[in-house]
Amino acid sequence: MPAIDWLRRHSVEALWVLFAAANVGAMIAWPSWETIPFHFVWISLTLLYGFRVWGPPGTALVLSAVILTTGGSILADTFAGIQLWGELFEVPLMSAMFLAMVWHARRRVAAIHESEALAESRATLLTRQERFLHDVTHELRTPVTIARGHLELLESEGRSSAEVAVALDELGRIERIISRLLLLAKADRPDFLAMTEVDVEAFVEDVFMRWSEVAPRGWRLGPTVRGRVWADEEALRIALDALVENAVEYTDQDQLIELRATATGEGIALEVADGGCGVPPDALGRIFERFGRADDARARTNGGAGLGLSIVAAIAKAHGGTCTVESGPGETIFALLLPSNRPRPSPATAERRLAELHAVTY
């Protein structure tokens, strides 16, 4: 029935009406003590409104009813000589207190609605962005695959040339950019990570061995803390690879690149230090932004979209950590900071995550 449904939805208001009616009855029954139930009525009304926040018509109706009942009782007792005339000033004072609560409560509700609308808009935007990037990258992969197939056919037929090698290299770069864009689009999803225990020492040594064999630099494996960290190993590998790739790009063959892992007060820091040209101070604040590059100091010799470091920042954020950079004369240090006591999230779909992360190659 409609009446029962209304009572279920407004059970708190119904209880307050009974409480207020009982106090008004007490005001009438014991006029010499009526200021006590009078304040009970007004204070309970103010507290109730702070939690429920009715609309303007309902608020005006309730306020008018309380003013008339409580004010009328005091006015009648004043004429009867039971109360002083000054007691009537309690009515406008309590009304002002209630209206102050109305103003603050409505501002709070408006702020909540605004934040909810903003959050919904941002969620919609992120969904559209992910769908757009997925569609675009899917469309791009088809012609890239076809072009690569024709170029590899030329190589297999013995018609390879420097131009074909350059074209294949650039197609590989396009494929990496596509994979990185997809990874960035999915970085805000709750199932972005597939967490496991990672042996820090073995992990850093593996990355060091892989890179030292393919990039001619002055490689050095620095101090590596022993222990395990709760992380997505594939995502962590992508992040550290991006930092090493960045160091390789901005160093010459005779310059040093050092990998190390150190313990911090909050967890573990995976660090990549290089003796390259450094990062200017005005670029330190934007170097981890998407498409952010410090071209004036660390000019790329082979092009790029500026996505590698933004991927590092996204992976660090997903782990509850941060990524930092320190640049001084002769040394630049990038650090991926991971918390040691990160709560374990619910299991994700690991197979799909591994397939997505393996697509991002460096």
How would you explain this protein's 3D organization?
- This protein is an alpha+beta fold and 362 residues long.
- 59% of the residues lie in helices and 13% in strands.
- It contains 10 helices and 7 strands.
- The chain has helices at residues 2-9, 11-29, 35-52, 56-79, 90-156, 162-185, 200-214, 233-249, 308-318, 350-358, and strands at residues 196-199, 218-224, 228-231, 256-263, 267-274, 322-328, 331-339.
- The strands form 2 sheets. It has a 5-stranded mixed β-sheet, covered by helices on one side.
- Strand 4 (256-263) and strand 5 (267-274) form a beta hairpin.
- Helix 2 runs antiparallel to helix 3 and helix 5 packs antiparallel against helix 6 (162-185).
- It starts with a helix and ends with a helix.
- Residues 292-305 and 343-350 have low confidence and may be disordered.
| Main sheet makeup | 5 strands, mixed
Q: Residue ranges: pLDDT <50 for 5 or more in a row?
A: 292-305, 343-350
- Total number of β-strand segments? 7
Name the strands of the widest sheet in spatial order: 2-4-5-7-6
Count of DSSP helices?
10
Please write the string of helix (H) and strand (E) elements: HHHHHHEHEEHEEHEEH
Give the helix level as a range of percent: 55-70%
Based on CA inertia axes, which overall geometry fits? elongated
Cα(first) to Cα(last) distance is 66 Å
Structural class: alpha+beta
Mean residue pLDDT: 80
Estimate what percentage of residues fall within beta strands: 5-15%
Determine Rg (CA atoms, Å).
34 Å
